[in-house]
Design brief:
Two copies of one chain form a homodimer. Chain A has 15 helices and 18 strands. With 432 residues, chain A is of the alpha/beta class. In chain A, the strands form three sheets. In chain A, strands 1, 2, 3, 4, 5, 15, 16, 17 and 18 form a nine-stranded mixed β-sheet that branches. A five-stranded parallel β-sheet of chain A has the order 10-11-12-13-14. In chain A, a hairpin with a 2-residue loop joins β2 and β3. The longest helix of chain A is centred in the first third of the chain and has 17 residues.
């Protein structure tokens, strides 16, 4: 379906994720350009083309609130290792050798294809060569919040933090106003950025009124080190620098103290919970039920495919719903409805985009997925949230629409050539 | 491919899961009847038909060591509830009303279709109307270890434990020697069977030399109750009754004491670890790394779809590999190689079938799956175990072969009609 044509998807079960969590049976969504202009029951009121989805589910696309997309190239390069050995002996050497702009483009395309196939419509990305990643993302048609990843030491993308800050600022200026690429200030962590860099980060975010994201309290060791160096843990250090505000999303946040949690709630700072990565790297299990009780906005992220090892938000949502029940011996925490909100509207809120995405409502962007229910995985359905969170896998996702444009139809990618991407990645022969 | 024809699958990466964990590149597997008669590199030595799999992966099918397959009918009927409320107010009333022989057949077909689509080739089933389940399983072509589920109180399948024991014994006699259905003594738990019933269970297993399975120490409450009633916890009670032996697999085993663990190791009793179900019902996280260190054979199970809510062993294997790293803050425990063994050969050992399944070796049954690697999920591959455990999802599984017969080819079911099954389940209108 072309972006510009008025059209309606009809005969759908619409999981709106609006404030009332309305589920509309025999529903339709009318799209004009990139916007939802009507949602209702029965026949659409507007003219235009009609697409009967045959009783399938339509829901907002997933918002992946934390990833390092081009690292999909390093999926499985090293596993089952202690964090520092994994980073220092495998990930960083591989990045030093292979993270060129061209390879970042190839890795980005691999990640983009996987995200579309698993129903993600918006992602927040932290990596280098951000211009290249943004160009590939715009071509693929996905929505993204991103910027040049800022840190102190040299990468293949910049020599030092001053150059990183310059690249980051140029990126914001260049992409500001783009329909799909939403610029942000992306800084790596309190332990990889000096105080002066963090101050400049804050100034840049304020100047351009853009969201920020960074890693916060991912491991016990990080909290100990930052506390040793700064006399404050990462959260209190960010608070001192006035970086703990409602523009900031902290990725991971496994080890927040009671004080930290209250400060997150008070300052409206969001969390991008990454349960798979936290398990895989042995970082721990974030006390998410406590965070939710305090009213903190908790979104979901896959982290990069080097520590996941995929970008599948369906799996992430399911794990988020399961993990905390077993960890707290309480099967009522993080119920299916909560998990689906974490994977959609909470992600939109974290990224400052809840005015345009995260739920299916009139006036918002047409970012949604269509889920096939005529298969064994989705049979029977007693409760839609339960079926989507606990039973579904990503192969049930048939169609993906972003900004009014279909990126996948009948599980066939429209904007990307999957075979070509797979061939290109294989031809790199990394580490062989 | 017909069961009786000599044929070879060539040009494959063969993940053998044999003692040396050999991986054979450019490999072939020759099948005659229901057996593997040759495995090697390059061109097959025997004549017969050749199927070039184009570089795809061939590995043993998954062994689901604990499920309640016909309960797939109740997938998602009640979630996010405390265990006893879930059982007493939702599952048991639904079962009393809907668990007829005919519905058990319909639920079984739904579960069988899902298992084939997700690469399971053998499962151990605990439910009622076992004859009906066995007939449906044989028709679908899957391998199963099963029997009539024995417990004290009345079900729709029997009036009391005496009738259950009779049905269980008749099942063993009827199905003994069957190529696909391996009879077993299946008893529910120490808290649902009286001492006299447990003694008869033991005698029956000894008389017919069949494996046994039961729920053991799934929740803290169960351990407390059995200890209160019997003066011993479930493991020590089973030990006293001489049921703790190498014919027994304990499902769940979340709350084993140090003594229990040593007794499992000493007596060769296996564990069917069900991480998803244990998380979902808030039962807890079994200390699997401790069990493995003690040399206990740990297999994997999905449990029933009423507490999972699917039968996908790919997801179960991935969760088993991830969960214990985060829970112990140690990313080196349950590595990819260990997880894949838990999902294959360890399951075969638990069920007493490691002489015929669980690995790809000459003389064993031809039970295997073919995995497509030309897709984004399986790109790139640096390590085969990592790719299968951490990156793959079940949609990558293209072909499933059991006992030499293809049950799925190119993701199309051969022995079952998926559309018909979905329609039949929907037509039941349970709880509507």
């Amino acid at each position: 379906m072309q972006e510009s044509i008025l059209h309606s998807y009809t005969n759908a079960v619409i999981i709106t994720i609006n404030k009332c969590m309305d589920i509309i049976k025999n529903g339709y969504i009318t799209v004009n350009g990139n916007k939802i202009i009507d949602i209702g029951t029965g026949e659409p009121k507007s003219g235009g083309i009609t697409i009967d989805v045959g009783g399938k589910i339509i829901m907002p696309g997933f918002v992946n609130a934390h990833t390092h997309m081009p690292m999909t190239l390093y999926r499985g390069i090293a596993d089952d290792l202690p964090l520092m050995e994994w980073l220092e002996e495998h990930i960083w050497p591989a990045e030093a050798k292979y993270t060129t702009e061209e390879n970042v483009r190839i890795g980005a395309r691999l990640g983009l294809a996987e995200m579309i196939k698993t129903g993600t419509t918006t992602f927040c990305d932290m990596y280098f060569f951000a211009d290249a990643v943004a160009e590939e993302t715009e071509k693929a048609g996905l929505r993204s919040v991103m910027g040049e990843g800022i840190l102190e030491f040299a990468t293949n993308s910049f020599e030092h933090s001053k150059a990183a800050l310059e690249k980051a600022e140029n990126f914001i200026k260049k992409w500001s106003g783009n329909k799909l690429i939403h610029p942000a200030v992306i800084f790596h962590a309190t332990y990889t950025c000096k105080k002066n860099t963090l101050i400049k980060v804050k100034e840049m975010a304020e100047k351009y009124k853009v969201p920020m994201t960074t890693h916060i309290s991912e491991t016990k060791g990080e909290v100990e080190n930052v506390t040793y160096e700064q006399g404050k843990n990462p959260v209190q250090y960010l608070k001192e620098l006035k970086l703990l505000n409602n523009k900031l999303t902290g990725a991971h946040c496994v080890w927040l103290t009671e004080y930290d949690q209250k400060d997150f709630a008070k300052h409206g700072t969001s969390i991008a919970h990454c349960p798979t990565s936290n398990l895989k790297l042995g970082s721990g299990i974030a006390p998410i039920p406590d965070y939710l009780k305090k009213g903190i906005n908790v979104a979901l992220g896959t982290d990069g495919a080097a520590s996941n090892n995929n970008l599948d938000m369906v799996e992430e949502m399911r794990l988020a719903a399961l993990l905390h029940k077993g960890n707290t011996l309480n099967p009522t925490v993080v119920n299916a409805k909560t998990a689906i909100k974490m994977a959609t509207i909470n992600g939109a809120k974290a990224l400052g985009l809840d005015n345009i995405i995260g739920s299916l409502e009139v006036g918002k962007r047409a970012d949604f997925i269509i889920i096939d229910t005529e298969n064994t995985f989705m049979t029977p359905i007693y409760d839609y949230y339960s079926a989507i969170v606990y039973s579904m896998n990503s192969s049930c996702i048939e169609t993906v629409v972003v900004n009014g444009k279909e990126l996948m139809v009948g599980r066939e990618l429209v904007t990307l050539n999957e075979n070509l991407i797979v061939e290109q990645v294989k031809s790199l022969k990394i580490m062989q």
